[in-house]
Amino acid sequence: MATDQAARELGLMVDYLVLKLSGLIDVTADMKSALTMVCTTRATFARGDHVIQPGETFKSVYLIMDGWATRSKLTSSGARQIINFAIPGDFLCFNAALFRESEVFVRAHTRLEAFVVPIRPFSEMLLKQPQLAIALAWTAAQEEGIVSERLLSLGRRSALQRSAHLLCEIHKRLQTVRLVKETDQFELPMTQEDLADALGVSLIHMNRVLRNLSKTGLISIKRSSVRLLDLKALRSLAGFDDDYLHLPEHAA
Amino acid sequence: MATDQAARELGLMVDYLVLKLSGLIDVTADMKSALTMVCTTRATFARGDHVIQPGETFKSVYLIMDGWATRSKLTSSGARQIINFAIPGDFLCFNAALFRESEVFVRAHTRLEAFVVPIRPFSEMLLKQPQLAIALAWTAAQEEGIVSERLLSLGRRSALQRSAHLLCEIHKRLQTVRLVKETDQFELPMTQEDLADALGVSLIHMNRVLRNLSKTGLISIKRSSVRLLDLKALRSLAGFDDDYLHLPEHAA
DNA sequence: AGGCGGCACTAACATAGGTTAAAAAATGGT
DNA sequence: ACCATTTTTTAACCTATGTTAGTGCCGCCT
């Protein structure tokens, strides 16, 4: 809370990222100005727009200001798997400096507002701010942890558990950037098909599972807003343990 | 081949890593000596030994010289999911400098020979050798790509396709460090249970699938040695496209 | 306000893959 | 070489999830 206000009082345009990093490291004024210095160009993507596609050459790194994005892959027969979601404060194409071209689809999942940082200035900023570089590397490593945990879900948890687990994870991640209401309610701008593609189940089964979760009073969904009615039971069902997110101790 | 010999003539102890990196970057003598400088302590793990366990504090990074390792996670009910395999030239606990403690099991899958590099000297080497740091970051990013592709497999490919895909991937990765014979034959020191745990299927089903692959003449297994009899057909079945490994053009 | 298009939901049926149980074969230690 | 373990293989049966085929709802656009 305090951190939240501190960040906003500075009127930073990189609020969400700072929220995510503080608690983890001490975000100095220097880092903040280095970040704002480099976050000059904004871009807006319409829902469904491709930020980048497989085979396309990386040109920039993106920092999400508002909205959701997805990283996804397709099988040769056209089936889609969503690898991960990105929310405000997350980077897109963070590995742009390492690889020439993308191997995945990065799409705006809602209307998306982001800063566009060309690779060159981004790399230079990292060289000048080693502490910040480490913090952002942490961010990337955290994402790998998230993908690993999803792999565990797809490999070894039932569709019901997977779904519960994803909801717990999103809830936690959104909390980090203060996008969850007191009532454990948050916006989840995803169709059941999107969820199915993230969890490796069919659309029909996704629907069965969601209704099951609703019927048993664990969650309630209205419009694209979800409320976790019994967080404890949901986490227990999912076998959710947030260790893999490596969040700072004090996080809610 | 040429690269292979060049590396071996130098009598480097970091052969496999250099093999992996060359082609990607120009591995200078400076980098090699920085690497050998830091790779002084060797450790041998017996098959099944834990290199690190969840909750345990990171102390070192490891560079595999010989043998295989796995990164795996358990569900709360004890089911295991292997996240990835590590082969000679791969690092273990590469994120040790970023996180305090491990969230996964890292185990010696065979008898394992590795260099042990304490975090401090490892970080210092990276700071002194930015080019090498970038190459190793590339390595870490490649692993994330591998995990993502496995997620696609578990989410959207049949058990048969997944199995074929994993075999194609291991074949390709082993080729990078010259551990595949001309005949597309290589050592695969894994029980069917291990493969099952990597692919998110039951042991029994894993057995069905492997016999299917053998019966249809795609592979042959004897002892812990596998031979891909029809690489083209296997890749086609798997929908295998090695783009996600981001290998240099000329790689076999 | 009406109509269109995407989503959510239902139902009946099909199957890939899971479970349990047990035998055969290979491996490794002494 | 022999015994103890581990690993592979078989078989019978079961279920979670997929597929196909719809209906109806809701939000958005004009």
Helix content of chain A: 40-55%
Number of beta-strand segments of chain A: 11
Rg of chain A: 18 Å
- CATH homologous superfamily classification of the largest domain in chain A: Jelly Rolls
**CATH overall fold name of the largest domain in chain A:** Jelly Rolls
What series of H and E elements makes up the topology of chain A?
Answer: HHHEEEEEEEEHHHEHHEEH
Structural class of chain A: alpha+beta
With strands numbered from the N-terminus, the spatial order across the biggest sheet of chain A is 1-8-3-6
The largest contact between protein chains, plus residue counts on each side, is:
A-B, 46 and 46 residues
Comma- or semicolon-separated keywords:
homodimer, 9 helices, alpha+beta, DNA-binding, Jelly Rolls, four-stranded antiparallel β-sheet
Characterization of this structure:
- Chain A has 252 residues and is of the alpha+beta class.
- Chain A folds into two domains: 2-141, Jelly Rolls (Sandwich), CATH 2.60.120; 157-245, Winged helix-like DNA-binding domain superfamily/Winged helix DNA-binding domain (Arc Repressor Mutant, subunit A).
- Helices cover 43% and strands 21% of the residues of chain A.
- The first copy, chain A, is built from nine helices and eleven strands.
- The first copy, chain A, has helices at residues 2-9, 15-21, 29-38, 119-128, 130-156, 159-176, 192-199, 203-215, 231-238, and strands spanning 41-45, 50-52, 60-66, 69-74, 80-86, 91-92, 105-108, 112-118, 185-187, 219-222, 225-228.
- The first copy, chain A, has a four-stranded antiparallel beta sheet with strand order 1-8-3-6.
- The model of chain A is unreliable at 1-11 (pLDDT under 50).
- At the A-B interface, strand 5 and helix 5 of A face strand 5 and helix 5 of B.
- Chain B binds a DNA duplex (30 and 30 nucleotides) through helix 8.
